[in-house]
């Protein structure tokens, strides 16, 4: 056990421009497994996650939604926290870049860097990618587009502050050379070295054209550029530069920053350069994992290939989804999400291997020993093999977790589970049970199986936090049994098992694939419809305004007192009929709360009587009675109606709970 008993791990802080998808969950579940495992080892863990809430994209999204940026992000952040609660994410702290204490820290950091000459004012001329919040030079563009996401960039020219990133190029290269573990996986380190050696440009760290962000304290017309704001969260969350927390000295430097490969450059070049300028310790490791792909491409809401983790968790269970993400995706490389892979992984590993082993073992303990088995030594080579695999499991898993090879750690655990299933076939307990002379051997076999399950359950707790306690319960143990110091063969003297529900019911593959395919098609169709609607709206907005056909001929002005003489009320249409004498008029009988009255209205061309009967509408009820149709009818008011652009007519109706006779103001 390491003497260093603290462990600080961070996810990237997610951009709340929309609900998170399964790709975001992948990163967070991986960090959660590492944090849980370190806690099991006795470390004092700080697990940080949060949201990066400033920038132009949020500002634009909020404007489109007709709300303030803070109102917009508040709503999205609530869904993020709900998702992490659903997925059993055991974070210790959730930071928002709109938190007052974070803003205070950022302003102090920016000011310090400016006062010591590491930040200076200049002019930015180049290209900007709004989705990536990134500035690019001509040479960095790929086919004239953003080298990170492939989207269009636009020309940017504005006054800005710059951080002297280039000043730290040599120190960064030396950092990579002297600390080979700093950038992982190893393959990504060469990308960063090449980026620096092509000529490291100073970094634009403020904008004047974007107001949604943290103001530069000594020049408020400037807003801090999102990356300085975002990266500082890793230390502001511990109390650096603020009095909200007092844990900086305890947990910094971070043991691990976990980020997606698309933002590795900011975390391994800009962030350590900032820390060097601040004369602060550097994080120990930055791991840039790959993308979770679908249909060969990175998940994107705009193309309709995102997967909603809430839907998956509701359908298959949280631990099944956690397991798939941690086991299926080669950590550090891109991985593919398919419905077939998900269902096959659930069926083969969780239902067939783990679930089947537990149910068979418990059933045999109950059938042959009334549920209680005791520790009986093994006598054969296959016993020794299972004992050795079980006792060596903790060491193997620990090494894999230290190396961040999480899928390999799960493979080691399931190697023991699979070996235990094979052990059942080799020892054939049902055959041993036929002869009383084999009772001791039979008890030894079942004890071996219980021990393999117990140790596997202890270690699975980091990955499947709701499944491991269920395993222990069926083995007759409580939560205190989930203890890595007991993760070795022979640590438990006896078992009194209790049969429970299947951990992971087997899924009908054909039926489930058909269902998921249908849901995928619905989602894609919805995304395509939304995309088309957006394009049409943008096209319409960009088109020259059509000449209005609204009649703007005005009546003579009246005084306020004259207007107050007009009595407007809500009335209910009790009856309505066409007039034989006129194709234009409808004869309405309306109730104004006191009496029924007759109103003739020239709306027969656009409304049928049945469209109006029972509806509540607005009327002018103190209009002098007007004889019509040669005195055959007397109209006692007028209804509200408006001309439409196509020459039609529109009537505003009131809800059913609006009282008849209510004044209209």
TrEMBL record:
Record note on cofactor: Binds 1 zinc ion per subunit.
Q: Which SUPFAM superfamilies does the UniProt entry name for this protein? A: Anticodon-binding domain of a subclass of class I aminoacyl-tRNA synthetases, Nucleic acid-binding proteins, Nucleotidylyl transferase
Q: Where is the composition biased (Basic and acidic residues)?
A: 524-541
Which GO terms of the molecular function aspect are on file? methionine-tRNA ligase activity
Region (Disordered) location: 524-548
What is the role of the protein in this entry?
Is required not only for elongation of protein synthesis but also for the initiation of all mRNA translation through initiator tRNA(fMet) aminoacylation.
Q: What is this protein called?
A: Methionine--tRNA ligase
Name the source organism: Faecalibacterium longum
Which gene is annotated as encoding this protein in its UniProt record?
Answer: metG
